[in-house]
Specification:
Layout lengths: L3 H13 L6 H29 L7 E2 L5 E2 L2 H11 L1
Antiparallel strand pairs: 1-2
Length: 81
């Protein structure tokens, strides 16, 4: 999602050159759009992190035997708080 801004923000700046607004106003508008885009990207990242707060599926080896190592348990406990 964040790379979408690489295309959108320069296009917005280019389109704003066709207006009769002063350069300072156009710069402020592009800055506001950048801040809004950054806020949306961070919000989406936080939302995706909240959605991942479910335990990972139990790992199984090639024979179908459950594999729970102490390191895996520790990693999950430290991740989930």
């Amino acid at each position: 999602m964040a790379l979408h801004a690489v295309l959108v923000l320069p296009a917005l700046a280019q389109l704003l050159t066709f207006t009769s607004w002063p350069a300072d106003t156009r710069r402020k508008l592009v800055s506001a759009a950048s801040a809004a885009y950054l806020t949306a990207a961070v919000g989406a990242g936080v939302w995706a992190g909240i959605q991942r707060q479910v335990p990972p599926p139990t790992a199984r080896d090639f024979r179908g035997v459950r594999v729970d190592t102490p390191l895996r348990q520790h990693a999950w406990e430290s991740f989930s708080g």
